[in-house]
Design a protein that fits this description.
534 residues, 13-stranded mixed sheet, transport, 25% helix, single chain
Amino acid sequence: MNRKTLVLAAAMGLLAPVLAACGDTEGGSGDGDAITVGTTDRFTASKEAPAPLDPAYAYDVGTWNILRQTVQTLMIQPRGEGDPVPEAAESCGFTDAGNERYSCTLRDGLKFADGDEVTAADVKYSIDRARSIKADSGVSALLSTIDTVETQGDREVIFHLKTADATFPYKLSTPVAGIVNQDDYAKDKLREGFEADGSGPYTLDAEVEGGELVRATFTKNPSYKGALKVNNDKVEIVSFEDADAMGAALEKNDIDVMSRNMSPEQIRELAGNADDEVDLVEMPGLEIRYLTFNTEAETVKDKAVRQAMAQVVNRSELISKVYGSQAEPLYSLVPASITGHSNSFFNQYGEPSTAKARNLLEGAGVSTPVKVTLHYTTDHYGPATKNEFEQLQKQLNDTGLFDVDIKGSPWSTFRPAGQKGEYDVYGMGWFPDFPDADNFLAPFLDEDNFLGSPYANGKIRGELIPESRRQADRLSASRSLTEIQNIVADDVPVLPLWQGKQYIAAHDDITGTAYALNSSSTLQLWELGRGVSG
């Protein structure tokens, strides 16, 4: 396969126009030939998670990338960088000086794909539904600052907040705030299976085999009225078992685009070849990886054990042996490119040191070696995850202070087990709901956090998170945000490892790939089109 590489500078998004057009459903690829996008994301309905595509439940990047195409939100994150902009709404904004009252006016003439009118009552119903169901995925925590939702007429929605929340416009851009039809989504229970309906740019047809969504076909919604220009008539997402199978499909022209998750080897190979049939597009990303601890588990209940692990993990070595230039060390939950970031873990622990780790354990009276199992998912974060955990195992065991086993499980069982506290230590990734420091802290540390973590710090929850949200100027929130990060580095309920870049590979007749992913790893299928090959 011939290849060429297109690498985008991190600042490119800043130069892009915010949105291509408003409410434009004309155009598209025009030839009826669906653009096919490959992914290794697995979409499974199970007894533990029977409603993977319900906006009131879904809370991972794969399912959100299905919902963002079909379920419209009041706000949307812009094409490049910047604050969210109106989507289903015509306008939105705070109407008080304290950032506690937020009002939106819907676009005139909004309709669901089935032709039903979208009203302010539907918005209130959708938001209240997600809050009342309060699914165990933890996604409803994004709406936790809402006190009540009020409507005035058919087009105005007013959110009364419990406390100031400068990040609230971002939260209204996430799928949990998606507008659903009361006829399709019951008020008090989740919608099981793989149906998803809304007023977004596409309608969804799901092909399901053995309880898994294997192909999602998105057809342009003729009733769509919003801020997006839809550049194609039809897009398909096909789920592959692994990156090798996805790469082979691209090679054989069975798919046009390869997205999540390519292997490090595939990325290096594509980047190293400058021929003309396939473009590799590199974009800045905010993906992070970390270990999370069940702080009530006997093996890691003592803070000294968690601190000792933080003291000996060698991030640079881990990255060089597994990911190379595709990742960089991370010393906080907040990535280095986000306002409010602090290198708190490096400030506390410095370079890896077995001697310092031994002193921590001896000082706390912890017997060594500490026996612990690190759990990881085999099919959600890419094929390099196993190698990553083998390297972590080696680093910890080589100190003589730990006796570490590793165990991998498929996401369909791994995720529920982690939430239920069945793992003492396990590896997770985070693709932000929106690009703000709050979204790298509150989902892990606040009440009803998505991890189901028993860790609770009263100062973080009661003082620092609310204080940071009062600051509309996010730079002004840095003091509170830094203190949160310092507390996390000392208590180690989570251990940040690395932050990564993101990539798309596509045949060179596919246009719009430069904008097909935003910094939050949102797949923007409407950007894709079919042009003329090289």
